[in-house]
Amino acid sequence: YDILGVRPSATEAELRKAYRREALLWHPDKSTAPAEVASERFKRVSHAFHVLSDAQLRAAYD
């Protein structure tokens, strides 16, 4: 939740919006951060969205 900047009670729409915001910010081709930092952060954001957007994985995480 912290990685995407959402509350634990966030809806699917809120998760999607937060993911898109963070993905655009940290995408290695668009970020102004060093490539290694942006790439690692983008991977963390993608993984967080993957876990939280799947109902079973989210339940296991919670």
Summary tags:
0% strand; mainly alpha; 62 residues; single chain; elongated
The low-pLDDT segments are none
Helix and strand pattern: HHH
Number of H/I helices: 3
Which overall shape is indicated by the principal axes computed on the Cα atoms? elongated
Radius of gyration: 12 Å
Question: What's the number of structural domains?
Answer: 1
Strand content: under 5%
Note the quaternary state here: single chain
What share of the residues lie within helices?
Answer: 55-70%
Number of strands: 0
Helix-strand makeup class: mainly alpha
Distance between the termini: 10 Å
Most strands sheet: none
Mean pLDDT: 94
Domain J: 1-62
InterPro entries: DjlA_DnaK_co-chaperone, DnaJ_domain, J_dom_sf
Organism: Emiliania huxleyi (strain CCMP1516)
Protein name: J domain-containing protein
Description:
- The chain is mainly α.
- It has one domain (12-61).
- The protein has 3 helices and no strands.
Helices and strands, with pairings:
Blueprint: H1 12-26, H2 35-53, H3 55-61
Helix pairs in contact: 1-2, 2-3
Quick synopsis:
With 62 residues, the protein is mostly helical.
